[in-house]
Specification:
HTH_MarR-typ, transcription regulation, Arc Repressor Mutant, subunit A, alpha+beta, DNA-binding, 6 helices, two-stranded antiparallel sheet, WH_DNA-bd_sf
């Protein structure tokens, strides 16, 4: 389906959204018995890359509200995966650190990520996997910037 000579956005964005929702549901199910809720594992993934970042930085990297970030971190803290510590250079900020229990979950979480990718790519050739990876990275690169903000222009018909 095309709109005004362009590809229908639903043809691209629909499958991306469906894959992402499936990924969250899969990970939530796999991590449920460990007390890690939907989306919380993403905070752990960031901390595996860089432990001790501020709550605000976590929210920006994951593109979630400060409130959602706080709830997720509180849940992970309650389960013993992370702890918060006041930032000595900015007493208003908290830095988030992995506990030993949080660090021990790393391999398990990565195994589950690989399992999901195996399902996702089950009908792909090695070449198709690589092409998909390259194209997806090319499409997403501008959104990786933690400072990325969607445009604020509102189309006239929505005003």
């Amino acid at each position: 389906m095309e709109i005004s000579g362009e590809t229908d956005p639903r043809e691209i964005l629909g499958p991306i959204a469906h894959i992402y929702r499936s990924y969250l549901a899969y990970m939530a199910k796999e991590l449920e018995t460990y007390g890690v809720g939907s989306g919380q594992f993403e905070f752990l993934l960031v901390l595996y890359h860089k432990d001790g970042v501020s709550q605000e930085t976590l929210a920006k990297i994951l593109k979630v509200s400060k409130a959602k970030s706080t709830r997720a971190i509180q849940g992970l803290e309650k389960e013993g995966y992370v702890y918060r510590q006041r930032d000595e250079s900015d007493l208003r900020a908290n830095r988030v650190y992995l506990t030993d229990k949080g660090k021990e979950m790393r391999n398990f979480i990565f195994e589950k990520l690989v399992s999901f990718m195996d399902i996702l790519f089950s009908d792909f050739t090695l070449e198709e996997r690589e092409i998909f990876r390259l194209l997806l990275h090319k499409a997403a690169i501008r959104f990786f910037d933690p400072g990325f903000e969607p445009p604020t222009d509102t189309p006239n018909e929505l005003k």
